[in-house]
Design a protein that fits this description.
This protein is an alpha+beta fold. The protein has helices spanning 2-24, 50-54, 59-72, 91-105, 110-123, 197-226, and strands spanning 31-36, 41-47, 78-83, 128-135, 143-150, 163-170, 175-183. The strands form two sheets. Strands 5-4-7-6 form a four-stranded antiparallel beta sheet, covered by helices on one side. The chain has a three-stranded mixed beta sheet with strand order 1-2-3. Helix 4 (91-105) runs antiparallel to helix 5.
């Protein structure tokens, strides 16, 4: 019974997140987190466009809370907005941006859209990026495409630090799947080596001093041998 209740609870939570994503539209929400408290439910929405979600005088937020109460029978939902300061390092925002670009310009320009997004992410300081597209691009048969740059972890514990997300683009030839993986520059890797430049300068100075000392010693030895 406990397992069934857990599965049911997770399904309801997933349906709430999906409803919020569809209600607000593609490319506006990065992550949705739900907290259950004795007072009510707190729904945290991370976005890089808080103005579009809040609306004038909080109209959209009020409408969203009313819809959540009506459709999912939540007791006291409160929607809180968390702003994403660097959207270029958010995999979900970038995946939605690629999907919207494919829907707007068509699948013919998929390479231009993918490479532009790749350059944008790398300029933001990402250590590595991988973009995967799968669908009719632009041939009649579905074919996978991969665009990558930089350093990206795929196995082991460090692979969990990679931000991964996916989206879908509804184009005229058919559905195109979009997957984006980003390794943030703020992530601390186990095998990462930090080079101290000041220490290197000191080592060079010490090595030069030692070399001069050895030269002086050799000269003194030669003079003593001649005597």
């Amino acid at each position: 019974m406990e397992e069934r209740n857990t599965v049911k609870f997770k399904k309801e939570e997933f349906s709430i997140k999906e409803f919020i994503q569809n209600y607000l539209g593609k490319g506006k929400i990065s992550k949705t987190r739900i907290e259950y408290t004795p007072v009510g439910e707190r729904i945290h929405l991370t976005t890089h466009k808080p103005g579009l979600i809040i609306g004038r005088k909080g109209e959209k937020i009020q409408e969203l809370t009313m819809q959540l109460k009506k459709n999912f029978k939540l007791t006291n939902p409160k929607v809180e907005i968390e702003e994403v300061t660097e959207p270029e390092l958010d995999a979900k925002i970038m995946a939605d941006e690629i999907a919207l670009g494919l829907e707007r310009f068509g699948p013919i320009k998929f390479k231009v859209i993918a490479y532009r997004t790749l350059q944008k992410i790398m300029k933001a300081g990402a250590l590595g990026v991988e973009i995967r597209l799968n669908g009719k691009l632009p041939s009649s048969r579905a074919k996978p495409w991969r665009f990558a740059q930089g350093y990206l972890k795929k196995t082991g514990e460090p692979a969990k630090l990679v931000d991964r997300a996916q989206s879908r683009a509804q184009t005229k030839p058919g559905t195109v799947g979009v997957k984006v993986s980003i390794l943030s520059p703020y992530v601390k890797l186990i095998d990462q080596i930090d080079i101290d430049e000041k220490l290197l300068v000191k080592l060079k100075e010490n090595s030069e001093e030692k070399a001069e000392e050895i030269k002086v010693i050799k000269k003194v030895k030669k003079k003593t041998k001649k005597k």
